[in-house]
Amino acid sequence: MSENITLTDNLQKYFGFDRFKGEQEAAIRSVLEGNNTFVLMPTGGGKSLIYQLPALIMEGTAIVISPLIALMKNQVDSMRGISTEDTVAHFLNSSLSKAAVQEVRDDVIRGKTKLLYVAPESLTKDENIEFLKNIRISFYAIDEAHCISEWGHDFRPEYRRIRPIIQEIGEAPVVALTATATAKVQHDIQKNLGILDAKVFKASFNRANLYYEVRPKVKPENQIIRFIKENQGKSGIIYCLSRKKVEELSETLKINGIKVLPYHAGMDAQTRSTNQDKFLMEEVDVMVATIAFGMGIDKPDVRFVIHYDIPKSLEGYYQETGRAGRDGGEGKCITFYSYKDIQKLEKFMHGKPVAEQEIGRQLLLDTVSYAETAICRRIILLHYFGERYEPENCSNCDNCLNPKEYVEASDEIVRMLETILEVKEKYKADHIADILTGKTTAAVKSFRHDTLESFGNGDDHDEHFWNAVFRQSMVAGLISKDIENYGILKVTPEGHAYLKNPQPFQLVRNHRYEEEDDDSVSGAPAGGSGGDPELFNMLKDLRKSMGKKLNLPPYVIFQDPSLADMSIQYPIDLEELQKIQGVGQGKAQRYGKEFVALIKKYVEENEIDRPQDLIVRSVANKSKLKVSIIQSIDRKLSLEDIADSKGIEFSDLLSEIEAIVNSGTRINIDYYINEVLDEEYQEEIFDYFRESENDSLEGAIGELGEEDYTADHIRLMRIKFLSDMGN
Fold it and tell me: How many Å apart are CA 225 and CA 285, to the nearest integer?
């Protein structure tokens, strides 16, 4: 019988398959021949078999170093499932009692155990090193080997100690396996493990069945609920970066009738394990989880993977999306993207060693490039892993199915570079955008940047456009963010070369991924868009007549986005009215009765089926930030101090206060206004809003001019006016 038949026979005997997939057979032969071996295969490509089958065939015990306890248990159960003896596979980690550890050691010494799974932390313990010195080791398999590399997405410092420990225990061939590794990560892994001579087996990273889409992060909860309801009964995973968001989102989905459970490292091990089992047993459809979830679970029919937050690296993204459609069937990968999330991740890096920041920044830049690209997402993703994808259109990503618009922007790139240099490369992107668009903010005025040659030189575009210019210039390597001084823009040598010899620059125009704040009125659409236009006009008439009766400008009662939301949701009592955008309890009680009465009558007369099933029920607002801001204002703290203590920009604090006031809560910031604005100026701005037909900030700035007042002064007085008159 030939060797080939023997190997296939063993495959059939142990695993029930009659043929190998892709590079599996060649990689297994390499292990059997005693070579150091490096295996790079995407999730679902059959990596585990490459060390499992040789371990069963060879003399001795294979030591499998694996990062997660849940993953080990899953793999051990799987191996026991194909064998007649439970002793064939064991794991050695901190979850075992002393008696259980002794039982494992006895089975290994008796030669009954072919695979011993060990956590890297357990491998470093002296008693385990001494024990392993006395057994016959067939080879070492390092699973999830990307954890070794600082450039990998799950860097684990203890993985760096594997090579010296192997030398201490005793030499044997090393097999490194990972589902995600760039050329840089691959070299780092091989160098650190001392296997630069390894035979390398690399499968294609293209998962043709996966659909990739990046969406603007605008009301993501609403979008997610609609998506899940359109895919009723299908299994899916939603990834969030924080434990808090996992809890909040799973609660929101639950009250909207979705079978869902959370999963994160802050939960006790028993709850995590129970929740994972319920997902595997299909008692729930959806798991909301941090990235710890999914490693080692072999659920082939996950039909969608949603990223609520953009991942920190493309490797992380690829691995997490790879948990969809492992059976070759449908797999939808939807990612919500807002550049604000990238800025948050950048802030987390601040204070870390410069080298670590540099790595993190580069990984984020690759992620931004992927999110904002207008070309086929497969081309970008596979290029990242050093693989060429030949077709220009994959027909299975949002960019290929809905091509994006490009605009020639070489002139804008030059203007941006000149502005950065004119201010001596000492300012952040938002300040450069203010100079270009000609905004006389407090900072612009105080640095006298309104006298610069470049001031207002880009007022043919808004700040959203300029933000896209900054980001896409960063991706192109023309500018960079200073590592030491967080966020300051610098012109790179490539940027200087571009200034001397400008080239055509294709900018993606319509990727407006700026996040809209659900509480913010300024970003909300005016008018009854998407709602019932007849009802919307009736509500506007009612608001106008109430304004006359109460001697209030109509927008003080309810603003247009609130009326638009009413024309979509049809609230018919005060409790439902409080779920409308910009309507708090106070506002509902004060002005709401006539509005819900009108809507109720309209619904009955027109026999309207209210879309209750589409109303996204929200968890009661637990915003600690808003409560804390109100308490700080009650204590008459300076608004600058409040912003600093919350770690937010002053303009963001004003947005939070505007949202509080617009929802019907009365606050008193007179103590602060009196410090920054003379009484006569206060009266002039207050009178403007009293007589104005709307509360547009842009309109007020245009009318009042910015010689005497800054935009912040006008915003402060608008807050005072709305609070005093409306609440």
Answer: 13
CB atoms < 10 A from the CB of 554, how many? 22
Which has the closest alpha carbon to 42: 365, 380, 387?
387
* Of the listed ranges 176-180, 307-311, 553-557, the one predicted with least confidence: 553-557
Looking at the fold, whether 164 and 217 belong to one and the same domain comes out as: no
> Do 606 and 676 belong to one domain?
no
Contacts from 612-615 at CB under 8 Å and sequence distance 24+?
A: 613/229, 614/226, 615/569, 615/579
- Go through the chain and tell me how many residues it has: 727
Is 348 domain-assigned?
Answer: no
Whether residue 524 contacts residue 561, with contact meaning beta carbons closer than 8 Å, is answered with yes
Average pLDDT, the chain: 83
Identify whether the C-beta of residue 428 lies closer than 8 Å to the C-beta of residue 463. no
Can you tell me the distance from the alpha carbon of 62 to that of 56, in angstroms, rounded to the nearest whole number?
9
206-215 confidence digits (pLDDT tens): 999 999 999 9
The percentage of residues in the chain with a pLDDT greater than 90, rounded to a whole number, is 31
Structural domain count, the chain: 5
What confidence score (pLDDT) does residue 688 get?
82
Range with the lowest mean pLDDT among 26-40, 363-377, 448-462, 620-634? 620-634
**The dihedral sign for the CA sequence 233, 235, 239, 244:** positive
CATH code assigned at 690: 1.10.10.1390
591 and 661 part of one domain: no
214: nearest Cα among 3, 26, 377, 385: 377
Q: Are residues 586 and 707 in the same domain?
A: no
Three-state SS for 480? strand
| Domain's final residue, options 202, 224, 254 | 202
Model confidence pLDDT, tens digit, residues 218-234: 889 989 999 999 898 89
Give kind and range of the element (H or E) at residue 575: helix 574-577
214 and 195 co-located in one domain: no
Q: Verify that 121 and 155 share a domain, yes or no.
A: yes
Residue 548: which domain range?
533-612
Tokens at residue 281, please? Answer: 């047993």
Q: In terms of domains, do 220 and 320 share one?
A: yes
Which residue do the tokens 């999914």 mark? 294
In a domain, 601, yes or no: yes
Q: How confident is the model at residue 240 (pLDDT cuts 50, 70, 90)?
A: very high
Full DSSP string of 44-56 = TS--HHHHHHHHH
Work out the angle between the directed axes of helices 3-15 and 48-57 (0-180°, nearest 10): 110
Among the listed residues 345, 397, 406, 401, the one whose alpha carbon sits nearest the alpha carbon of residue 371 = 397
> Is the separation of the CB atoms in 140 and 55 below 8 Å?
no
Nearest residue to 436 (alpha-carbon basis) of 409, 413, 454, 410: 454
Range list of β-strands (E), 523-568 = none
Structure tokens at 510: 């319509």
Percentage with pLDDT > 70 across the chain = 89
Decide if 333 is inside a domain: yes
DSSP state of 612: G
The torsion of the CA quartet 525, 530, 535, 538, rounded to 10 degrees, works out to: 30
Q: Classify residue 618: in a domain, yes or no.
A: no
Task: Tell me the Cα Rg of the chain.
Answer: 30
**What global pTM score does this model have?**
0.57
User: Does residue 380 sit in the same domain as residue 470?
Assistant: no
Q: How confident is the model at residue 194 (pLDDT cuts 50, 70, 90)?
A: very high
Instruction: Please say whether the beta carbons of 144 and 178 come within 8 A.
Output: yes
508-to-141, 241, 373, 466, 487 alpha-carbon distances in Å: 45, 27, 7, 12, 23
Mean pLDDT of 20-49: 88
The CATH code of the domain that includes 499 is 1.10.10.10
Of 138-142, 424-428, 453-457, 474-478, least confident by mean pLDDT is 474-478
Q: Which residues of 211-230 are buried (b: 16+ CB within 10 A; e: fewer)?
A: bbbbbbbbbbbbbbbebbee
Do the beta carbons of residue 230 and residue 187 sit within 8 Å? no
Taking CA atoms, 618 is separated from 306, 428, 492, 692, in Å, by 19, 36, 46, 34
